[in-house]
Every structure is written in C-alpha cells, then in structure tokens.
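Handout, section B. The chain below has 563 residues.
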Amino acid sequence: MQYKEVLFERTVLMRMDYKKVQFSGYKSFRRNDKNILDAIGKVNVIIGKNNSGKSSLLDIIEFLYDSSRYADYASYIHTCHVSIPISREMVKDCFRFYRSIGSYTENSYWDKVQGNCVTLDYIAGGGYKQQSKVISDDEIPIVSGIAASVEQEFHNQLSTLAFRRLSAERNIVPETVHAIYLSNTGEGATNLIREYLNNSNLDEKLIEKKLLGELNKIMAPEAIFSEIRVQEIKDKEGMFWEVYLQEEGQERVALSKSGSGLKTIILVLLNLIIMPKLNEYENRKIVYGFEELENNLHPALQRRLFDYLYNYAILKDTRIFITTHSHVAINAFFGRDDTRIYHVIKENGRAEIKKIDTFIDKVEILDDLDVKASDILQSNGIVWVEGPSDRIYIKRWLEVFTENAFIEGRDYQFLYYGGKTLANYSLEENPQLINILTTNHNAAIIMDSDKRNRQSKLNDTKKRVIEEFDKLGMFCWVTKGKEIENYISCAALSKALEKTLKKQCGQYQLFPDYIKIYCKSFSNQKVAFSKKVSPYIDGDNAEILDIKKQITALYNEMRKWNK
C-alpha cells in the first residue's frame, strides 16, 4: 500500500503514453483478428471508404482516452491491450524499495529494459490489469514493482485525459438560452458563443479576437471576417439566438444560412480554443477526434485546415485523430514528423487496419478510394532538369538561398528530360511530341546553355522550348555559364575534395577539363560527385553568375504552385 501511495504522488508528474494498442471483437473488427495501432503520433489520420470501420476505430480510441466513456464501450469490446513504455522514473521508483533485483542493479536493469513496454490487458467488467510479459531476449520478467508502477500511472493518467469528438453529421443552428455545453453534433455552439460574448464573467476576446483571428487564418483569402456577434431573432416558434458573421464592406450573414464548410471550421475552433477553458476540462489534457472534416470543403481549404490542426497538435503537445475519405489528407500529412496514417479496409464485412509507411501504401489507398491519377495533381508542380546531378545541386541552392519551405514529392517534384531527348518535349499540342503539361500543368524547366563562349548560339530545340515557356509565362532558366556545374564555388569544391583550388571555373569553361586534375572520375560519376560536393555549398555561391537571382525566381514560381 505504501508503495502505491508513493507512486501516486510521483505519477502526476510522469508522462504516460501508448506505444501500441491491440484490440478485437468490436463491430466489424472480428474477434479472431489482431487489430493494431502502432506508434501513435500527435496527428493520426484514419482513412478509408464510407462504412469501412473508421468511426468504430474512433470509438476504440475514445474508450482508451476518456475514462468517463468506459462504461459506454467496455461491454462491447472483446479484447483490448495497451503497451506502455517503461520509463527511467519507473525503474528508479522500483529500486527505492528493492536495492537489487536478482543480479541486477538499478543501472544494469535499466540498460536491459529500456525501450521495452508493459502491456495492460482489459478484463471485461474489471478494467485494466497488467499482463505478464517477457521484455527481453534473456527472458527477464518485469518485476512486480515496475508492473505496478505502469498500472498505477495508467489509471492516474486516464483521470487527467478527456476526449472531444466532432461527428460527421454536424450543424450550427439558432438556439435558446441553456446550460453551457457543446455536443459532438454541434448542438450548443450558438449558446456557447453567446455566453462568451455576453457574460461578463467570461472572456469575450476568446471569441472576438482569438476564434475570429484563427478562423481568418484558415479561410483567407476566400473570406476575411471583421466581426462576429450574436443577436436575438424571432420566428413562429419563439425567440432564438443566432450567430452572425460580417466581412468588410458587406452585410452581416446569419451563420445558420452559411455553408456547412464554414460551420465545420467554427466547430473545430470552438473545440480547440473554447472547450479547454471550461471548468470540466480544467487540469485535463484533451484528445480530439474529428470525423470527415473534408465534407463541403474545397481542396485548398482542406489543406489549410489540416495544416492548422497539425500545427496545433505539435504546439499543444496533444493527440488529434482524424477520420477521412479525402485523398487530400494523404498529401497533407504523409511524411510529416509525429504523424501516422492508418488505412481501414473492409471486405466481406470484416474490417482491418494497415499503417501507411511507403509510397506504394499511398497508392493502395488511392486505389481503395477509387481515385484515378487524373483526379489529383499529385505534386503541385514539376521542375524539369537534364539529370539527377542537376536535381541535387538545385535542391541544395534552394536550401541555401531561400526559406526552403517546400517538400519535394508534395509541393514540387523533379523530372528528367535527359539531354537530347528534350527535342521530344513541348508545351504545345503536337502529335509528334510529348506534352509537358499532361504530366502537371505547373512546370518549370532548367537547361544548360552549352555555350563555349559569349558569341555561341543556343540550339534550335532550346530556342523553341524557351519560346513556349515564355509564351505561357512559365519559369525557364538557361544557365548563364556553359552548364550547371559552372555555378559551383571554388570554396565548396576545395572543402569537398580536401584540396586547394585556386580559381573559379570560368563561365564558359568545360567543367570536366577544370576538375579533372582534382577528380579524374568526374565524367563517369557525376551523381556521386554532386552528392559529395553539395553539402559544402553555402552562401559563398551567391555572387557566381546569376545563381541567386535564378534560384529566387524558381522559389517564387513554387510559391505560386503552392498558394
């Protein structure tokens, strides 16, 4: 008893988190299947077709994170196991009461168990109990003290967690005065806003400034609201309160008569900004579950809302779960730090979960959602270059000379046209040539001039391509020197090759001739050479020919693609 009392005092300060969740026997998730959520992130996207089991999975998550809903779900779940990492503090607590465990001291035991977990097993009608589990290759069992620490911490943590859910079926409508609450369908939203605007005991700035400001961050440039207020209205059924929004220079519009997309964003913000301020959530961390936020939101607005939720989760160090059947969510979240994507598939009435880790996994989701390649733009723009070494240099220059805010594979992508094959590409409708714009309507191209001196002329293919890009107002960069390597600084080459190069490669000088004294294999290993040199490229490149000007112009073009 004394041991657990000590633990209770400490665990308030500890951070308990799920490393893995395994469950079975809930709705379309069959009893005999192992359904696993592994390495839960700050943002967790649950994607799948309608009626695939996404909402059922969110039920399980609500069951795990909100002890107040335990009784609502417990009797319907067949099995549920949660794995919780063993912390250094748990080991310390244990060794306060046991100077040694077998032949292990505190430090040697920690060396053995770190990175391992204690699994807690849900017992129908009895809550969670620690499950006997082997935690190392040497089959060292978890000592009772460690297990007790984890179990105690689990229950203590549950009491500090709450779960807020926003259902796919939601709305904001005029309401009468009633107690402050906000349901998962949006009921109570109007009254909640009214209370904060009109009750002197509450902070009206949370609505007038904070909520309105965050709403504009997401909605701009489509709409920028200058005012939010609540007014009393009368209809045949009586007196009600209605939320009104106003844009600059326009009349106020009743929220109930606005689009459902706007209502969705306001409901999300009420959950994120206002609900944590209510007394019932004081000293509790809220975990959020949002269902099908994409409904009636165009793709650009979806992306902004998804970006907002990601930044919120990271800033507030909380968990957000999003169910969706929108392919926009894949590109919005895939590859981001502390984000997980789970694909829910249902076949013959049986649901299963798959964690998405690879590009092929992404393709499988698109196939499952019946998304055709023609339905999506994939990356937001294409930078056409001659070969892979060009890509490596340009990526590095983007890092050095710009904010480097764009992600390759999502915001832009490189494609190679391969030297002489450029003659087979065009921006115009020509049955004899490949149209660049069918790959992506946002395109930029970078070409070596191949000029040997100032008087040299560009070949006919490059002249044609320049004319086509200029005609459409698209970015085209022809190197001011002979080729891309002529932009590399002497200083970067000296550092990479660990040899002193006394002068810069000339504007029209053949780079292979220039570098062969120091790197005889250059001509045969251009890609390997670029990988070796690029990390040493820094701001000393800025004054070499027109490099900074062109990279800045390319970056500004990418900004247009990613508005």
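Note. The first strand starts at residue 20 and ends at 24. Compare this with the example in section A.
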